[in-house]
Amino acid sequence: MKIAIAAGLLCIAAAPIIATLPSAGEPTSSPVPKVSGGGLGQYAQPAGEVEGFAAYVPQASCDPKWRKGIRAFRDLVMKTYPETEDWGSRRDCTDDGVSEHLDGRAWDWHADVKDPKAFAAATDLINWLMAEGPDGEDAYWARRLGIMYIGYNHRIWGSYRASEGWRRLNNSNPHTDHVHFSFSWAGAFGKTSFWDGTPAAEDYGPCRVYQGEPAPLHTRTDPTRRPCGSPPPLTRTSTKSGPLLWRGSESAEVLAVQKTLGVGAPNSYFGPKTMRAVADYQRRKSLPVTGAVDTLTRAALVSDGVLKG
Ligand SMILES: [Zn+2]
Hints:
- By secondary structure, this protein is of the alpha+beta class.
- The chain is 29% helix and 8% strand.
- It folds into 2 domains: 2-196, no CATH class; 235-309, PGBD-like superfamily/PGBD (Muramoyl-pentapeptide Carboxypeptidase, domain 1).
- The protein has helices spanning 2-14, 17-20, 68-80, 116-130, 140-145, 185-188, 193-196, 252-260, 272-284, 295-303; strands at residues 85-86, 106-110, 147-152, 155-158, 167-168, 178-183.
- It is elongated and about 65 Å long.
């Protein structure tokens, strides 16, 4: 899928979109004309109580994959607006920036503002997401899907700053050719009221165990988690540090790790199988399960003779 990769790089390379989000812009108008949106409501499970506005929980782990809620949302959007295009979800960890494309909580929907049909589709969906609920709830469907923020056509809407409405998107990528959606963890796991009729509790996701290292993988939604507190301690090891090896890395060191950990068809490229093998190794060694050869994991691999210290 060449186009998905190209589009993805455009989104992230130009835009550590999330890093600029919480402080971005002054209140402004909607990125699309205000009309009532048809949307995806026919597919929702009925619900009484619904979610509040999702908190801002930035990406901290790197685990790019199609998560259930993102894939299901994508499928409904593509079925409803077949004239538009899926621009994908995943990135490699080696791509720069902080982005939910790296932890499996984002999706890019190709809807160019200069293409009347695609713009009409984006208008329809966005107006539906922002529409009031039966009891006057703002952004009813965005809340029920666990949407954390939307970037489109020079504008950004964040659930964590919903009272400010659409703000100017201060980003080198104006998002005029696609709509970017980032989801809460519950939304990404498909556990919100849209899908099962039960409002999801906030899931604040994984917190870094050591400063500057990726956070542990988040494999299932966990409403008992609290927001990550003060910065964690720095990692201390007796071995010298080396490059972080994770999804997208390609090197002789990756090959050595693959051979030792029994990854089939070792090829020096750190893909999903290598990530799973590293995670299993971390579990055996009681290390934070980040799926990356981080500082502590490198030290363990050096001590096991897999990598040179
Ligand atoms: Zn994006």
